[in-house]
Amino acid sequence: MKVLVFHLKFLISFIVFLSLLNCYNDEYSDVAQTEDNSLVLESFILEKKNNPHLTKDIVFDIKNDVIQGTLKTYFYNSIPTFSSNAKTVEINDLEQVSSRSEVDFRKLITYNLISESGSTRKYNVNISWDDKLAHIYIDTEGGTSIISKEKYIYTKLTIDGQSKYEDRTIELSEKARIKGRGNSTWYWPKKPYKIKLKNKETLLYDKDPLSRLLPEKDWILLADYQDGVHLLNNVAFTIGRMLEMPFTNTIIPVELTLNGNYRGLYGLTEQVEVKTNRINIGEKGILLEFDQYFDEKWQFRSANYNLPVMVKDPGLDSKDELDLIESEWNNFEALIAHEDFPNNNYLDYIEAESIVKYFIVNMLTSNEEINHPKSTYIYKEDGGKYSLGPIWDFDWAYGYEGTSQHFVNPNNNLFWANAKSGTTFFKRLILSDPKIKLLIKDYWSDFLTNHKNDLMSHIDDQTFIIKGAKARNQEIWIRSLVTDEFVMKQWIENRIAYMNSFINSL
Asked: Are residues 248 and 176 in the same domain?
């Protein structure tokens, strides 16, 4: 009998539950009504006046609750102008104001129109991406192949700016020239190039003055043959600019067609040289390069550390001029080698901040080339102090040195255990002075607080911009390389964790 009563009670309770559930569903149905078709998004435009990066207004089509348009990857952050009979318009519960609210169109966007009574209607945004980058067409005189790093060839240059940059043509008569460049990179199948213009000008004329490369005659096309993510140098230079390192390069991704043959994704950047709009240290300023290739006309081995020192600028006329530069460097180097270091006056001759910033960039990217050394620059104004920089060449960074793989060994020490000339000099210069160590801690803390997130966002942004070109590049240069930017970001996160431990131990 007790069992029967229990079952009856359970049955009654279940019926009551179903009734309540039905009532709830009825009430919910009243609230969650079908969309209110009287609500209408009447127009959706990206107006040039609100989006200076555009060359013209872009009008979107609206059909079947879908907002459809085509955008270039450069313009994913834009401010739409729209009209609607809705009381409010929202994206993810955030009110959108026509001609004021910026939208990241890379994300899945749904506009929610809400009436006075609370009824709604949704419009989904569907973007077709025009992912072409600025395209440089190089047609050498007579179709001559570029086979030399020493001999220039006259060339016609045609630039398709893809709306972001001005279209232009530099005719053969304007005397633009091109040749090969690079050391080890020249011997890879995909070649890097140097372009020399007759007059100082900006090769890619950005319509945004704040993003415009400053005019000069010399320009570099980096091939990035070993770079599957096509971001190795880009990210390193971005870190340098975040640290406000003077004369840090900018890289603009472009596509290249040479004598009618598509050659893939390249990085357009400035030449490292002493010029007004490059390394602006005056006519009497000095730019030195430490590089084991030791292939410049004016060169010497330093007295204390046997560094391979080459004079990049100024151009010299005599051995006597070289001797003066050599003597000045050796006098400074002697201070670093002296038993009283760092308790001498060596910082009267080199900028402390440049030491710190140079270390952070190379440490964060695990760029071990300073150990050889290779592609290591130092400059000084006439009568001024030495400064490390500008930074250059990160093809062998990010774990590549000794492994031939990028994004491995995030916990690798920057300095080698052997007695390489670069190792002994830079390790002593950077890690032997308590004042420098303290500055490293301060600058590193500031970088983590103010720039780390921006760096990760930059990687995302650049990856999005070059996605199509990277795929087209891979079709002709088939390589088994890491191409996933998420691998790069994870490696940087791991590298940061290692640096935190290393710097805290200083």
From this structure: yes
Buried b / exposed e over 244-276, threshold 16 CB at 10 Å, is ebbbbbbbbbbbbbbeeeebbbbbbbbbbebbe
CB 330 within 8 A of CB 304: yes
Instruction: Tell me if 58 sits within 8 A of 81, measured CB to CB.
Output: no
Q: Considering the domain boundaries, does residue 268 fall inside one?
A: yes
Give yes or no: residues 207 and 120 share one domain: no
Q: What is the pLDDT of residues 357-407, one digit of tens each?
A: 999 999 999 999 999 999 999 999 999 999 999 999 999 999 999 999 999
Q: What are phi and psi of 499, to 5 degrees?
A: -65, -40
In a domain, 11, yes or no: no
Compute, in degrees rounded to 10, the torsion defined by CA atoms 126, 130, 131, 134: -150
Q: Do residues 97 and 158 both lie within one domain?
A: no
Q: Which is more confident, 140 or 4?
A: 140
Looking at the structure, do residues 384 and 476 belong to the same domain, yes or no? yes
How many independent structural domains does the chain possess? 2
Q: Which domain holds residue 392?
A: 135-504
Helix (H, G, I), strand (E, B) or coil at 347: helix
For residues 192 and 293, membership in a common domain is answered with yes
**346, pLDDT greater than 90:** yes
Q: Look at residues 420, 304, 426 and name the one whose alpha carbon lies nearest to residue 376.
A: 426
Rounded distance between C-alpha atoms, residue 7 and residue 464, angstroms: 63
